[in-house]
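User: Design a sequence. Structure:
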């Protein structure tokens, strides 16, 4: 009888499995859907500031090549490289004039090929930045397009003939007047630029433009690169009748600009034409306005993109500070929205942000190292692919520039001019950019304590942070307790524990304003992460008996003293502890 029952049970599960397979039910985020890009730690390199090999003060590809062993030593799996294509550099490479060539300052295509080879020899994948919401106004397409109303390239961009009057306003993020329509006297028409005047928006509604882009993508994929990050792509599709938006729309321009008509058709086409033919991963910058938007970009069965890169988390930090309760709420909400399907990127910094430790931690000498390590622990123990920005592994801090002359960032300089034009408070503006400006995260990488932090033998394109004698890679490599060595440890721990990649996330002690505590469970293990986000002692009420827990990692040299007395964990300032629970 028992045997009959067992057979019945077996039969039932067999039929269920057959049914699920025949229904093609997507099994995501579980063992059947493991992907390299979910397991990878992505290290972002800002090439202009990484390492200069020829003394012109600008980082370059040969510089990156010379540091490949350093990059490998971090234990990361993939590099996301900011744009390296030919560019007049109005926006540091985000204005591309030739998509099949390398920016002069960065080197040659031979350099690129040897860099890619060097990465692959070391088992490091390369994700390229693809900027195709717009090109440079110095791209041949635009030169032709602006030359005549009858040019075959006219429809590569968005033009509005002047005899129709001025088009409905569009807000430009980077323009000195924030006007996204620029009048061009050559053909008496306005062209659209969501970013700067030198970044005209491409017309994705034109199938020829789309074909050009897919060909460019294939050119790079054929070279063997491993992925694409699609810059500002949520804005690519537009309603070309350009209807008026309600007053004040610019305060929430993502709502009006993102997910335009046919965006999903374009992504499906791109997937068919490119992604499906290569082993490449894809991530778009921005994830729309709602969870539904984000899912529509990345749910696997839709065959569009692989993972979402949403801004709500990184946007929590403000010049006046931020609330940990808000931070926890945002990250928990996103995790739960993606718990069953879809996949997220986890990041707290990139080239468009000020420094990780200065924004989310405490960059004073007393807490800089501890809070850097604590934040790194957070990034590496959440569900989603971690993106980690170069220099943060040393705990590099904001530049703290006092004078406008020290800044290089085009939108910042335009906004400075704008503030002057409208009689704005310049002192207040300078205070704000000292905290917020993206140049804070773009100062040269601090390699050692020699002149210019070992970044260049020439004059760096932007000032080196004055603290390079204390914060630099060479010193930290030698110090087993450094931020750098901690980074390596926590990356290794993530790689060794698929629980930290695929495991379920559960928030603990939700209303604790000082501590972020959560468990990750799955793949045969349960882990508890407790992070003190403040410079004072704090207690996490985790409600779990951690008496028999094993401490896997802590950011203090002296082992944590607590071990779950009465289901509470005592944490020292900015302490981070990872436990394995029995
Ligand atoms: C993205 C990039 C940013 C750039 C902008 C325009 O937001 O990350 O650096 O300035 O797009 O391309």
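Assistant: Done.
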């Amino acid at each position: 009888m028992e045997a009959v029952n067992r057979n019945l049970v077996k039969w039932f599960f067999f039929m269920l499995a057959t049914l699920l397979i025949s229904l093609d039910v997507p099994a995501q985020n579980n063992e059947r859907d493991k992907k390299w890009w979910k397991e990878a730690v992505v290290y972002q390199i800002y090439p202009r500031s990484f390492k200069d090999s020829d003394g012109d003060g600008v980082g370059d590809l040969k510089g990156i090549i010379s540091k490949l062993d350093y990059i490998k030593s971090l234990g990361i799996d993939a590099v996301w490289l900011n744009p390296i294509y030919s560019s007049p550099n109005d926006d540091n490479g985000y204005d591309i004039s030739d998509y099949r060539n390398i920016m002069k300052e960065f080197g040659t295509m031979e350099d690129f090929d040897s860099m890619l080879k060097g990465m692959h020899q070391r088992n490091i994948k390369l994700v390229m930045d693809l900027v195709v919401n717009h090109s440079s106004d110095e791209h041949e397409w635009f030169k032709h397009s602006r030359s005549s109303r009858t040019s075959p390239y006219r429809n590569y961009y968005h033009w509005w003939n002047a005899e129709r009057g001025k088009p409905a306003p569009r807000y430009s993020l980077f323009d000195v007047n924030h006007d996204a329509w620029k009048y061009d006297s050559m053909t008496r028409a306005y062209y659209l630029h969501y970013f700067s005047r030198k970044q005209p928006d491409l017309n994705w509604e034109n199938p020829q433009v789309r074909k050009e882009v897919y060909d460019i993508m294939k050119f790079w994929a054929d070279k063997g690169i491993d992925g694409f990050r699609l810059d500002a792509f949520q804005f690519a599709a537009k309603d070309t009748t350009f209807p008026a938006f309600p007053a004040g729309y610019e305060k929430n321009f993502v709502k009006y600009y993102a997910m335009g008509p046919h965006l999903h058709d374009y992504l499906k086409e791109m997937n068919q034409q490119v992604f499906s033919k290569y082993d490449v991963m894809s991530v778009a910058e921005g994830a729309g306005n709602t969870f539904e938007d984000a899912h529509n970009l990345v749910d696997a069965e839709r065959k569009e993109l692989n993972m979402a890169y949403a801004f709500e988390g990184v946007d929590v930090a403000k010049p006046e500070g931020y609330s940990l309760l808000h931070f926890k709420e945002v990250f928990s909400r996103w995790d739960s929205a993606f718990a069953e399907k879809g996949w997220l990127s986890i990041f707290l910094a990139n080239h468009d942000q000020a420094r990780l430790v200065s924004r989310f931690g405490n960059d004073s000498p007393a807490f800089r190292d501890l809070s850097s390590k604590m934040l790194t622990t957070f990034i590496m123990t959440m569900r989603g692919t971690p993106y980690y920005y170069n220099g943060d592994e040393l705990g590099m801090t904001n530049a703290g520039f006092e004078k406008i002359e020290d800044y290089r960032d085009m939108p910042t300089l335009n906004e400075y001019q704008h503030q002057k034009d409208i009689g704005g408070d310049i002192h207040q503006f300078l205070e704000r950019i000292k905290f917020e400006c993206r140049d804070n995260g773009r100062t040269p990488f601090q390699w050692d304590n020699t002149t210019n932090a070992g970044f260049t033998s020439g004059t760096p394109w932007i000032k080196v942070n004055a603290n390079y004698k204390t914060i630099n890679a060479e010193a930290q490599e030698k110090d087993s307790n450094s931020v750098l060595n901690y980074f390596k440890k926590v990356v290794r721990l993530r790689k060794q524990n698929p629980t930290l990649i695929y495991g379920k996330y559960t928030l603990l002690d939700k209303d604790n304003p000082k501590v972020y505590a959560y468990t990750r469970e799955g793949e045969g293990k349960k882990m508890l992460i407790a992070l003190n986000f403040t410079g004072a002692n704090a207690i996490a009420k985790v409600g779990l008996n951690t008496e028999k827990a094993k401490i896997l990692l802590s950011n203090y040299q002296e082992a944590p003293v607590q071990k779950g007395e009465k289901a509470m964990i005592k944490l020292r300032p900015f302490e981070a502890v990872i436990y394995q629970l029995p």
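Residues 2-23 form the longest helix (22 residues). The radius of gyration is 25 Å.
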